[in-house]
Amino acid sequence: MPSSLTYPGVYIEEIPSGVRTITGVSTSITAFVGRALRGPVNTTVRVQSFAEYSRLFGGLWQPSTMSHAVNQFFQHGGSDALIVRVFNGDIAASTATVTLPTDSSNLVLEAASPGVWGSALRATVDHETRDTGDDLLFNLLIEELDRPGGTTVVGSEQFRNVSVDPLSPRFVDTILNEQSALVSVRTSAPTDESPTDGTIAVANPDGTATTNGTLGSNGSDIADAQITGDRDARTGLFALEAADLFNLLCIPPLTPTTDLLDATWAAAASYCQERRAVLIVDAPAAWTANPDTAIGDAETGVNGLRATIGNDDAINAMVYFPRLRMPDPLRENRLADFAPCGAVAGIIARTDGQRGVWKAPAGLAASFSGIQGFTYTMTDRQNGVLNPVGLNCLRSFPVAGHLVWGSRTLAGADLLASEWKYIPVRRLALFIEESLFRGTQWVVFEPNDEPLWAQIRLNIGAFMQNLFRQGAFQGTTPRNAYFVKCDSETTTQNDIDRGIVNILVGFAPLKPAEFVVIKIQQMAGQVEV
C-alpha cells in the first residue's frame, strides 16, 4: 500500500513483477599463462586483439610460446583473452632504471615491468613550466626507442608541470605511478630540488648501461614453479583470482622445447574445477618423437596424465594430439612445431559464436587456418586407438583440410563410462551452473516460502526455456528437455529453519554424433506386380 493515505483521491502503487532476468555468461573467455617480452607480472590483463596484446606484452617473441598461442587464438576466431605474464628471476633487479640527478640527490625512475625492453627508455627534463619561478616544477618526457641506444622513437609520454613537492596535486610520484604505462618512481627526489635539465638514456648505443641507469633483463626460462605459483600471493596460475570469469585455460609449453610436468597439469585442472572452466592440455612433443611408436606413446601418455590429474578433475580437461606444423613468422616463415592450445581455443570460441556452447567444437567446421599439417599424420585405424582413451586427435583430410577430429574430455575414455564424456555436454553444464550462480544472487536473504519458490521457478524456467528454443537440449517439448523444481519437496521445514532453499534443475543434453553408421542392404527377388 502507499505509505500514507491522507487525502481523498486515487493513489497509484507500482507492484514488482518478480521477474529477474537471468543472463547467460560468456562461454569462450580464454586465459593464457606464460612468458612474455614485457608487461605486468602476475597480473591478469584483458586483451581483445593481438594488436592490443602486442602493445601491452611486446608481440611475438621466440622464447615466448604464449605469444604464438595468443596470436593463433585470435587468428582462429577468438575475441576475448586474459593474459597472465610470469617471470623467472629477480623482478626488481631485472627492471631497467634511469636516474635523474638533482643538486644533492636523485629521482630514480624504473621501467613499468621487467625486461630488456626497459633498456631502450630515455628521459628528458626541462623547466619551461607554467610558473618559471617555482623551482620544484619541471616537465618530463619519457621516450621508448626501437632498441637500446637507438634513435627511432616508438612510443612516448609527456608530463608537464609535475612537482617534487609531495603536497602538490601534480606530485611526480603520484602522476607517474597512476598515469604512465612506461615508468614508475622507484626513489623519490628531494622535496626541495627538481631534476636538472637534460636527456638521459638507460643504455649507450653499444647497449652498455650509463652511469645514470641500469639495464633490464628478460630473466631465465620459466619453469613449472612459475606456472603453479602461490595462491596466497596470487602468483602464477592463481593471478587469475583477480578475474571475474574465464571459461578456457591455456598454458603453452614452458619453452619451445620444454613441456609442462603432469603434476602442473593436475594443479591447473584442479583450479579449473574450482572456477568452472575447462583446461586445454597440449600433448607433449615426446609423444611424437619416435614416429614408429607415436600412437603407443600417446596412448600410454594420456593414460598416465589422467592418472595424475584424477578422474574427478579430468572432466574439466581436454587433450589434443599432435602438434601443429606451420610457418614461424620469426624465422623467415620456415616451418616449426607449435602447441595447438591457442588455435583450438580460437576454434572453440568461433564454434560457440556460430552454433552455441552445446555444439561440439570438432568436425568439418572446426578447421585450422594457416597451418601446413601436423607433427604426426594418423590413419583412421590409429585414430580408433586414441579416441576410446579420451585423446582428441587432429587430422588432415583431402579437400576438407586440417580439422579437430575429437570432442572428448580427459574423462571420456570408454572404460570410465563418465556422464561427462563429451566436451559440449560438460561445457553446457558449466555454462548453466555459472549463469544460475550469478543469476540467483538476489535470492539470498529473501523470505524462504512459496512466493520466493514461485519466483525462482519462473526466472530459472525462463532461462532454461530460452536455451531450449535455441536447440540446446534434447526433446521436442520443454517437459522432455528440462525441469526446474523448487517447492516444499525440495525445501523441507528443517531446511527453512536452517536458512536453506534447495533448487533442482535438470536438463537433457545433446550428445554429438560421434559415430555415423549407415546400413546398406541389397534387395533381391523384389518384383513389382
From TrEMBL:
<comment type="similarity">
    <text>Belongs to the myoviridae tail sheath protein family.</text>
</comment>
<feature type="compositionally biased region" description="Polar residues">
    <location>
        <begin position="207"/>
        <end position="220"/>
    </location>
</feature>
<dbReference type="InterPro" id="IPR020287">
    <property type="entry name" value="Tail_sheath_C"/>
</dbReference>
<feature type="compositionally biased region" description="Polar residues">
    <location>
        <begin position="186"/>
        <end position="197"/>
    </location>
</feature>
<dbReference type="Pfam" id="PF17482">
    <property type="entry name" value="Phage_sheath_1C"/>
</dbReference>
<protein>
    <submittedName>
        <fullName>Phage tail sheath family protein</fullName>
    </submittedName>
</protein>
<feature type="region of interest" description="Disordered">
    <location>
        <begin position="186"/>
        <end position="220"/>
    </location>
</feature>
<feature type="domain" description="Tail sheath protein C-terminal">
    <location>
        <begin position="418"/>
        <end position="521"/>
    </location>
</feature>
<dbReference type="InterPro" id="IPR052042">
    <property type="entry name" value="Tail_sheath_structural"/>
</dbReference>
